[in-house]
């Protein structure tokens, strides 16, 4: 058993596609709670999460409590042209910072797609441990993620882990909120 960074987390485990599929309702409920989204959001997101599981390099890590319930989850995969997020970010970076910067960041990256920790488990290191375990051994040159703008625990976490600004105040199609896109070189411990 792994040393727990939180009284709410007992261990961290890698989940296979089949294991996450079997726990998808639980994972999506955690996502809705952590993001404070309205009820019904989980049903809208389920098809997207299922599609993501089929992408090259997909991996997932969960934090489990002493009842074997998810206290946190993180997943991602190899980013590639043709993926919605890739195309949105590439366009934004190219417009704000130029094609050379877009090429630098997006030629070889792992997309940290989802990172969520139950509110009562936040602030005890579970998020940092999830990110660290998720990207450990990833063969990509960079890791990229997007997060809503504004001061938050997420921003503090990403800054502590050495993530830098790639694109700021970007509005993804279909979402009125401004987002920051952050990135850093891999391996994580190199920074």
Automatic annotation (TrEMBL):
Residues 7-189 form the N-acetyltransferase domain. Its EC number is 2.3.1.-. Keywords: Acyltransferase, Transferase. The keyword Acyltransferase applies. Pfam families: Acetyltransf_1. InterPro entries: Acyl_CoA_acyltransferase, GNAT_dom. It comes from the Bacteria. GO terms for molecular function: acyltransferase activity. The keyword Acyltransferase applies. This is GNAT family N-acetyltransferase. The lineage of its organism: Bacteria, Bacillati, Actinomycetota, Actinomycetes, Pseudonocardiales.
């Amino acid at each position: 058993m792994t040393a727990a960074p939180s009284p709410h987390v007992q261990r961290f485990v890698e989940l296979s596609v089949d294991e996450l599929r079997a726990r998808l309702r639980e994972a999506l409920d955690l996502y809705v709670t952590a993001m404070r989204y309205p009820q019904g959001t989980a049903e809208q997101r389920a098809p997207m999460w299922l599609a993501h599981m089929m992408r090259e390099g997909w991996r997932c890590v969960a934090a489990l409590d002493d009842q074997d319930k998810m206290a946190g989850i993180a997943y991602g995969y190899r980013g590639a042209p043709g993926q919605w997020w890739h195309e949105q970010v590439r366009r934004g970076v190219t417009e704000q910072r130029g094609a050379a910067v877009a090429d630098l960041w997006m030629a070889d990256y792992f997309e940290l797609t989802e990172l969520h920790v139950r509110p009562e488990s936040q602030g005890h290191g579970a998020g940092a441990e999830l990110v660290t375990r998720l990207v450990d051994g990833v063969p990509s040159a960079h890791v990229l993620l997007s997060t809503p703008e504004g001061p938050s625990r997420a921003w503090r976490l990403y800054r502590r882990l050495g993530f830098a600004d790639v694109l700021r105040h970007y509005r993804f199609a279909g979402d009125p909120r401004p987002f920051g896109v952050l990135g850093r070189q891999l391996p994580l411990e190199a920074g």
